[in-house]
Design goal:
By secondary structure, the protein is an alpha/beta fold. The chain has helices spanning 51-59, 79-82, 88-100, 102-107, 133-143, 162-166, 195-211, 237-252, 284-297, 352-365, 380-388; strands spanning 8-17, 20-28, 74-77, 110-113, 118-120, 123-126, 147-152, 156-158, 187-189, 215-218, 256-259, 273-275, 306-308, 369-371, 398-399, 410-414, 418-424, 431-436, 448-450, 456-457, 463-468, 473-479. The protein has three domains: 8-59, no CATH class; 69-322 and 351-388, Aldolase class I (TIM Barrel), CATH 3.20.20.70; 398-479, Immunoglobulin-like (Sandwich). The model has no long low-confidence stretch (mean pLDDT 96).
């Protein structure tokens, strides 16, 4: 389906004969309104021979918005290291560590306090770990030369919170007129089309803006997609999400908005930047999982939003001064994980090679860079990795071999004066990687340089061959003029 959408669409493809496919698209009109006629969403079907060609053709249907690299947010975020335990002291510690390092202090602009600061979801007031309130938090950030950012989940209301118990008119109702439970668990949902819901949202973001926050990470949004009926008639779930962001934008002016879990189907630049993957954590299983999302979403960059690949984290056994580099891991000792446990924070933490590969991937997305480690606990190896990624190019790399294997091995970034090629060995064993320039429509370069080590490589028979260890990657560059 072509964006923006109004209603949910379920698509399926079934092979009916050896040479025939049957494509079905079902639009899920909600029960808000009775009409004599309904119009389905618009669709586009590709007949390209490869998945890469199909995705590139789809991308060409959307106008690319010129964005300067300096407009791409670079910052630090509390979530991946502290989760919901974050405190004012933690934020100050990391700001001081950043300020002491000339490279970090030059590039990092935003300090974002993620989930864990509030009393509960719905009562968006600071808890006991933030003495002095949000006013002090914002002032501590601004006084050190950074821009304050904050996380909220504005649609989610804890079932036993004051707003849920005392102002039920703000909530989305089910077919019986009772509050509709959120799929987030233990929550109800704010209706952004109801006057009382609008007022609740306006008061929240006007207050946060006046306190001094200028970056807003908006999360837990996809719950609206299951809603069948809003207060305002004729409104589909994507309409409601766009209305939510319109309300927020009116309150926070030109602040930067990150849509975390914002469906791309809402359309271009509903948010300034958007998450394109599941959460990263410092396990190889999460790198694989994140790339499974990026390989389909890379093209959204500068067309739907600025891509946000999630945090740049590098802490691990080789890159941190701490023996324990993660919070309690729920699957650390499970010999036979099942379902989500096979991926969610499963397996050992990063080694240096894996941390470097994740750094390369973040760099090649061309989008936002938010550090997520406890900065003071990174050793020199860890710091050298994150410093390499602090100048986003603004250009998203393309997976040249998309669809040839489970994950692409070759990612090409087309910069103004040079090409960059990321080669990733996804195998758990060493692998000899060979890249054929002519096969991918590229002129054979005379000289190729490793971006990290500055090692010079030459081609043989129009190919570049490298021996890469398990989970290892190589980031290469060559001039367009050679």
């Amino acid at each position: 389906a072509l964006y923006p959408l109004k209603f949910n669409v379920n698509c399926s493809v079934v092979r009916t004969t050896r040479r025939q496919l049957c494509f079905t698209a079902v639009t899920d009109f909600n029960g808000n309104e009775v009409k004599n006629a309904w119009q389905s969403e618009a669709f586009w079907i590709s007949t390209n021979r490869t998945m890469y060609e199909a995705v590139e053709s789809l991308a060409s249907l959307y106008e690319e918005k010129p964005i300067k690299p300096t407009d791409i947010p670079v910052g630090w975020n509390s979530w991946d290291y502290y989760f919901r335990t974050v405190s004012l002291d933690d934020v100050i510690e990391n700001m001081e560590a950043i300020r002491k390092d000339p490279d970090l202090s030059e590039s990092i602009k935003y300090i974002v306090v993620d989930d864990g600061w509030s009393h509960n979801w719905g009562e968006w007031q600071p808890n006991y770990r933030f003495p002095g309130g949000l006013e002090r938090l914002a002032e501590e950030i601004k006084s050190r030369g950074f821009i304050p950012g904050i996380w909220t989940a504005p649609l989610q209301i804890e079932a036993l919170s004051y707003p849920a118990m005392r102002t039920p008119e703000i909530l989305i109702k089910n077919q019986n007129g009772d509050p509709l439970p959120s799929d987030a668990g233990g929550h109800y949902l704010v209706d952004p089309t109801h006057p009382a819901g609008k007022k609740f949202l306006q008061e929240l973001y006007t207050r946060l803006y006046h306190i001094g926050f200028r970056l807003f990470k908006i999360d837990y949004l996809r719950s609206l997609l299951k809603v069948q009926k809003f207060y305002e008639k004729g409104v589909g779930p994507y309409d409601a999400l766009r209305e939510l962001f319109r309300i927020i934008r009116d309150c926070i002016k030109d602040s930067h908005i990150i849509g975390c879990s914002l469906p791309k189907e809402c359309g271009p630049f509903v948010a300034d930047s958007g998450r394109i993957s599941v959460d990263i954590h410092n396990h190889w299983s999460h790198v694989e999982w994140v790339v499974d999302s990026i390989l389909h979403n890379y093209w959204l960059h500068n067309r739907i939003w600025i891509n946000d690949p999630d945090f740049l984290i590098v802490r691990g056994m080789d890159t941190s001064t701490e023996k324990e580099t993660n919070v309690m891991n729920p699957n650390a000792n499970n010999p036979n994980p099942v379902g989500l446990a096979k991926r969610w924070r499963y397996g050992p933490v990063f080694n240096e090679i894996e941390a470097k590969t994740w750094t390369n991937i973040v760099m090649m997305t061309g989008g936002s860079v938010f550090l997520g480690d406890r900065i003071a606990m990174l050793n020199e190896k860890g710091l050298s990795l994150v410093k390499k990624a602090l100048k986003p190019t603004g250009i998203a790399a393309k997976p040249l071999d998309l669809g040839n294997d489970l994950r692409p091995f070759y990612w090409l970034q087309d910069l103004n004066d040079e090409y960059r090629l990321l080669i990733i060995n996804w195998n758990h064993t060493p692998n000899k990687m060979s890249f054929d320039f002519l096969h991918y429509g590229l002129s054979v370069p005379v000289e190729i340089k490793d971006v990290w080590s500055k090692t010079i490589y030459c081609t043989s028979d129009n190919q570049l061959s490298l021996d890469l260890g398990p989970h290892e990657s190589a980031l290469l560059a060559w001039s367009k003029t050679l």
